[in-house]
Amino acid sequence: MLKFYFSWTSSSTKLVLFLEESGIPYEPIPIDLQRGAQHKPEYLAINPNGKTPAIDDDGVIMFDSSAILIHLADKHDKFLPPKDDPQNRASMLSWVIFAGSGIGPFSGQAAHFKYFAPEPGQGYAHERYQYEARRHYGVVNKHLADREYMVADTYSIADMAIWSYGQMAPMIAGEDAWTEFPHLKRLVDTIDARPAAARVLAVKERFASAFSAPDEESRKYLYKHIRAGA
């Protein structure tokens, strides 16, 4: 059975959605980032980058959420354009990587400098990541203006990837985010209404006690640069 190492981050959430949509049996293994489980030798043997998610797919070890999503979709032939449709296949890959290498990192950094930096919500880094996060949301919003889904008007892993990071828009851009990005909101709402999305929330509730709340102790695991410079 697939072993799925996860924390409750956007990168993990898109994979929970895919697994629940696909009906692939899996064993969820929570990694408590707030208590440094990602830095333990046994986990670093699976993901040397010390991040989540990661998988052990019957002996095939993988990390990086986009790589895992593409691997599982291809292996099980789920939520992909047909192989004889090279353009939409290429577009799907482009949007999955755009989400994982663009929206995700910029949104994460925007959240960090807005809420968790020593001087939250101010300075050059805050302004830069706010701009880039919003720019990425805008790219998706514009693309969705005349289509229901990201690729070929068919629900795919590209939509799952956008959904997981797109949910962060109000946290990053503020209460007017959905007014600014209405087409992104429509996609998020459409996926939220799917039965699999409800099962994602059930997984979150099931493992709620496995994840510690952020506190002063967690800073030494999540922000080692601050600890080293203290």
From TrEMBL:
Residues 85-211 form the GST C-terminal domain. SUPFAM superfamilies: GST C-terminal domain-like, Thioredoxin-like. GO terms for molecular function: transferase activity. The keyword Transferase applies. The keyword Glycoprotein does not apply. Gene3D superfamilies: 1.20.1050.10, Glutaredoxin. It comes from the Bacteria. Keywords: Transferase. Residues 1-80 form the GST N-terminal domain. PANTHER family: DISULFIDE-BOND OXIDOREDUCTASE YFCG, GLUTATHIONE S-TRANSFERASE-RELATED. This is Glutathione S-transferase. It comes from Tardibacter chloracetimidivorans. The lineage of its organism: Bacteria, Pseudomonadati, Pseudomonadota, Alphaproteobacteria, Sphingomonadales.
